[in-house]
Design brief:
The structure is a homooctamer of 224-residue chains. Chain A is built from 9 helices and 11 strands. In chain A, the strands form 3 sheets. Chain A has a 5-stranded parallel beta sheet with strand order 8-7-9-10-11, sandwiched between helices. Chain A has a 4-stranded mixed beta sheet with strand order 3-4-6-5, with helices on both faces. The two termini of chain A are 30 Å apart. In chain A, 65% of the residues are buried.
Amino acid sequence: MSGFEDLGFCKLDVDRYERTGHPEIVFGLGKTADHVEAIFSRLVEVHGRALVTRATAEMAERVLPKFPGAKFDEVSRLISFGESARRLPGKVAVLTGGTSDIPVAEEAAGTAEWMGCEVDRIYDVGVAGIDRLLSHKDRIREASVVIGVAGMEGALVSVVGGLVRRPVIAVPTSIGYGANLQGLTTLLAMMTSCASGVTVVNIDNGFGAGFQAAMILQLVAEGV
Amino acid sequence: MSGFEDLGFCKLDVDRYERTGHPEIVFGLGKTADHVEAIFSRLVEVHGRALVTRATAEMAERVLPKFPGAKFDEVSRLISFGESARRLPGKVAVLTGGTSDIPVAEEAAGTAEWMGCEVDRIYDVGVAGIDRLLSHKDRIREASVVIGVAGMEGALVSVVGGLVRRPVIAVPTSIGYGANLQGLTTLLAMMTSCASGVTVVNIDNGFGAGFQAAMILQLVAEGV
Amino acid sequence: MSGFEDLGFCKLDVDRYERTGHPEIVFGLGKTADHVEAIFSRLVEVHGRALVTRATAEMAERVLPKFPGAKFDEVSRLISFGESARRLPGKVAVLTGGTSDIPVAEEAAGTAEWMGCEVDRIYDVGVAGIDRLLSHKDRIREASVVIGVAGMEGALVSVVGGLVRRPVIAVPTSIGYGANLQGLTTLLAMMTSCASGVTVVNIDNGFGAGFQAAMILQLVAEGV
Amino acid sequence: MSGFEDLGFCKLDVDRYERTGHPEIVFGLGKTADHVEAIFSRLVEVHGRALVTRATAEMAERVLPKFPGAKFDEVSRLISFGESARRLPGKVAVLTGGTSDIPVAEEAAGTAEWMGCEVDRIYDVGVAGIDRLLSHKDRIREASVVIGVAGMEGALVSVVGGLVRRPVIAVPTSIGYGANLQGLTTLLAMMTSCASGVTVVNIDNGFGAGFQAAMILQLVAEGV
Amino acid sequence: MSGFEDLGFCKLDVDRYERTGHPEIVFGLGKTADHVEAIFSRLVEVHGRALVTRATAEMAERVLPKFPGAKFDEVSRLISFGESARRLPGKVAVLTGGTSDIPVAEEAAGTAEWMGCEVDRIYDVGVAGIDRLLSHKDRIREASVVIGVAGMEGALVSVVGGLVRRPVIAVPTSIGYGANLQGLTTLLAMMTSCASGVTVVNIDNGFGAGFQAAMILQLVAEGV
Amino acid sequence: MSGFEDLGFCKLDVDRYERTGHPEIVFGLGKTADHVEAIFSRLVEVHGRALVTRATAEMAERVLPKFPGAKFDEVSRLISFGESARRLPGKVAVLTGGTSDIPVAEEAAGTAEWMGCEVDRIYDVGVAGIDRLLSHKDRIREASVVIGVAGMEGALVSVVGGLVRRPVIAVPTSIGYGANLQGLTTLLAMMTSCASGVTVVNIDNGFGAGFQAAMILQLVAEGV
Amino acid sequence: MSGFEDLGFCKLDVDRYERTGHPEIVFGLGKTADHVEAIFSRLVEVHGRALVTRATAEMAERVLPKFPGAKFDEVSRLISFGESARRLPGKVAVLTGGTSDIPVAEEAAGTAEWMGCEVDRIYDVGVAGIDRLLSHKDRIREASVVIGVAGMEGALVSVVGGLVRRPVIAVPTSIGYGANLQGLTTLLAMMTSCASGVTVVNIDNGFGAGFQAAMILQLVAEGV
Amino acid sequence: MSGFEDLGFCKLDVDRYERTGHPEIVFGLGKTADHVEAIFSRLVEVHGRALVTRATAEMAERVLPKFPGAKFDEVSRLISFGESARRLPGKVAVLTGGTSDIPVAEEAAGTAEWMGCEVDRIYDVGVAGIDRLLSHKDRIREASVVIGVAGMEGALVSVVGGLVRRPVIAVPTSIGYGANLQGLTTLLAMMTSCASGVTVVNIDNGFGAGFQAAMILQLVAEGV
């Protein structure tokens, strides 16, 4: 099991930096604060930096005192420490349909930033007032990758997909009620979108979108 | 059972004109050509006009020879005969996202026309090329009622809902594949739309949208 | 972004009155009390009136002291301030199947009233005791628009749809259990209703129905 | 395995008459014509009568020539031979919402008749024209058991359930499209009906409803 | 609205006894304690007895002190007062698959008893230990109506349906986890059961089964 | 890629015999007759025997003439050639609920036999006539592994699971209609079964059950 | 009801040891602490040992003081007392995809151990770092039965299924969010797995997998 | 509507090349051969090249004779004419789990090639024989973008996602049966995959994946 370290309760993928260009990122949901603390500590020892997603306040209370400089952002629920030595080229635009989508958007933005990306946040530009979106058309077109975070019918990404010459990553959010089915409707709607060049990640998975954006810019940085 | 006529296999609602302002309209799906012919004939006797939705070629072959002037439109699948004596005020705009939505849109348009509405068709204005829609903004705003017919994620109606001061009726279509779930995704997405003032009818139910539009204009015509 | 005002966390659609005849209405669900207070204040400055749907007691405690005359209705969960200068013609009948549907019905009624409509409430007329509904037939027929709020199988709107010559807007509610699937069954049942002229809004979306009713009466008021 | 007879491909329940008061009834769907013929023949030998549901024309061609007096009804898809020696008391009212529900209603009616019931057919009394139903109120109330066969939102049984002092059995049909989901919406809607005293059978299962009605009248006949 | 009494928040169906043989029964879920108290009081005035299903402890605290003799059963969640003057003939067997199904079974049993039925409780006879069920075969066969209450795959009613010559009413319960889908799997499984003569009510709807059983025995009592 | 052979359109797993004790078995569904013929030929060359599941008549016409002794069974849709040199100990009982489940049961039986198992077929023992099943109790208990093939609510395996001291593998079939949802209801019902010691394979996946049974008996043969 | 003991609220299957080789195991979910205590006590009297799954701390507080030596494991939620007199041959490997799957894995392991199996725990070997799994290939292949516990897409069992010559039992867990649908996606994905020889139990049903593994090893122990 | 050309039945997006770097690509599904021919002809006039996805043989018969050099590929169902003047840097690896996934993979590959990408096809490397995949590890890692096309549980992309430092795009296919739910299970499983850096497109949407891959390489070509 070269490349993995057995912490007893888990097998830490210390080799991931080598394979993928980034250390393993800790998915906090369903883990105990004990486990997160142990993994975090070991990652900092090995890589000098670490990131926890879906972190809780309890996890933050355990990790922050031990690592001066570590930060917990309550909106994005990210605990981060250190940063990528390498700045990736280009810019990631993160758009939201409404204000309720901001926590998920911040998870995407925070993940991409920690991985070395520059992020441009363009929030509350849902299509019900289409001029809000169109007035930012040039700014959106300047981005190298666009992340569209939206709930309800997810129409934002369909419109954006038709405006840009860059990859668009859609993040459905669980904002909505009734027919929204906790974001499942948004996910399926984004899947069946009439715009080309749009790919989709799981409901509320800001992390996945930010990660994929960084992978794309890493490709640009490293060349083909 | 005053107001109903027993044709044996069905109870014809001959009083509906009195109650709702329009003769009963025949839903062809699942009926035999025999039944449609019998109902059609009786409706023409009573009201001087009739309309069949979801008609088949076989039904048309039975009805058209008997009623010179009756028409069968293959796209909308409507058999119509006669027209409303009364022309309703205003105009109904019927929009589609793509060319595949046209049959459903024509069912809406044909129904509204038969009921006395003027219809303005604005087809293939889906949001992936948002300029197509925006270039018709003024024309859409002139309509008294807007019907938005779209498949996939149904984003068209979300954008239109934010542009107009008039009621918008959304018709999800079963165009699409995979995550579209035969139009169910579109239906749910339109339901959870971020635009106010949008109501929705069943998948592919152009008839229902045209009918509701005519009801609204009938209200305008008759006053409150 | 003419017509939009950037409040930092959101882009306020101050131009909506111009476009649609009504100020932007605030959807409280998922917003912080801070955000609601800020948006509410700015809307009152611009338009002299404001409405919040799905408001919480916490939001009310923030907004009411600042705006004497503002009201919070616990049943409908609406915070309202000011009213439409213009009274719309006609009358909106709001029906419910049972007593549990009243909160959603009140959201519909309160929204329509705030937008200038006269509302006639006819509650607890579900079809299991059909005489209750039929005894109000004339009163229902006098309305210009009918809103039917019902849970369970939603049969109320199917019966009403066949009684009137006016548009009917159906609001499925999440009342019920088991096979009701939190209102999804009601929504789909209303969609597939055997009555013509019925359109549907999202589960528990009283606001959407009230808004659409006001749009129809605004059309009557402004003419085609 | 007393009470069962091994035909090789199946184990015939020849003892069912003893246990339940009726011979085993053959469910034709998915069986070969060979199998149906063999089972039918053996049932006639043992009981002097037999019934096949969901029969095909091919099955009829095999069975009818062998058993003079056997009948195949194309609407209900029943092959029947002989009849119950015993006439059950009371009357079963079979109602349908529309004309498309008739085949399922006929399966219910034919099954009940073969089992010894008197049946009163009241078809096309859907609630969109509520007077059709109400004009038959007395006739419906005279029945000992009421079977309501309806598609779409199934509202018929909710109204009927509130009118009678007798058990109501609901049969959802797969008539409809889009949000109807091949009858699943109707099934769930009938389940969540606001009327008490209504029980439900599977989609299009006219047989099950007719059988249950006969079981109820058998109870009346035999006493408690 | 003859037969209905307007209590302001609801329209009480005081005529239901006349129509159906039983006073209106109050469905407590989603009602306030105030409403339940008011309805309960009026029903007792009119009919001398009343029944509330899905009652809460709070409702009981309001109703019991006012009506000496009223009872609240915590298992079945029924508040009952008075009883049917008429004892219905025969016996209702109420079976459960497991011990967790008992609350729903008690709702069925309590409802049937309040309506005048004699009830025989046969609990914890699920099919995984088939001898438990078979050892009660004679007792089950003596019943006039059988109610089968079961969760999980609901196999109990399939086996029972094949054993008796009497109507079987199945009540799916929400007991189970994972693939059980809160009882939806059980409901659908019971619907598609291989046994004839079984009808089904909503998930956890013990009331509905008890009510239907009483309707059947009322038919026996009153004759056809 | 040691252990795999590149046939151009596929990578044949020639090493599977080594790894799992059995040659790769060809899943015919969705493959062309060309592909099946090529794979079949190569498997026979390497292992001296081959098995195709979900085979079509067209595939059989291609394969049988080339390999005298190869057989195509129309019921199970298996093309088989050669047999396991090793006879596995014990016996696999294959049960079905009804006659319509036989094709899936034959796929299970044929697969197990080709892999060296002895099979005991016990068909049409569904629980609606529970004596049929119970009369074979001893024969079922003699089996080393029991495969229960059933449609509808799948109750057969729940009863069997409680009768035996051996592993039970459940195969849901797509037999049924309406609420059966093409076997999905059966699958979920079997999952949530009240019997312990039951595991489940995909809908109509007789092959998977037969394969697992053979794996269990291979373990017995080879020892732990 | 020979073999069953009536405890009033339940019918204890004291004969199960005889029939299946193991005493009845108590499913704690939905039972009261009273009931669990009573059943536990009686099982210990009859068999000298007992096991409760899905136990709560409250149940443990009731049972442990009475039975010195009884243990409550908080991770697996098992209360166990005594052990199988017989040690089963071979070894059960229990694998998990991640650390969050451990509680379910421990339920499987604890059940199998209580039934006499030796268990080898191999945790956190999900396929996103495939080397973790492959580095344990030999250890996995040594097992007589493999239990794969995984959430999300459940890919672990597909890979394992292709590596071993032994039966694989898959346990989907409810770990995940959004498109995971509380484990339903994992369950269906495991069902449709591309690996042969894999059977599946209900979501989070570690008990079922452990039980089936023990049944397989019991077969080995007892011979065919 | 600058940038759009009105062909009567559709509004051609002739400006798309300008906006996105590629001409509009024609989605053939649901279009008539007439429409496809007209759009194709106009696209060739404007851009000198054109691509139709989901093309039928009938469309090919109309288009190919008119445009010598145009090709119809029956596997991918693409009609293509001309090619991108610009060759994009890097390489797109297209992987499939099985041979049945090849048509979808070819749609992805053909689209990417037409847009100027170099494609490396690595087919039939599903995880049930993990060595097939691992033996191509280096080749996969050389790609700039990886497209994983798989049916069933979609495990391929989870494994690949953990192996590479490049963006992975997953395409679920509708290959499978039963619990596969026509690819919906695969789609949801890929969404909830345990691997980071994976995004997903609609079921069978090879085009979308190829397009997104080309957008990424276009970014590399044009620089940020």
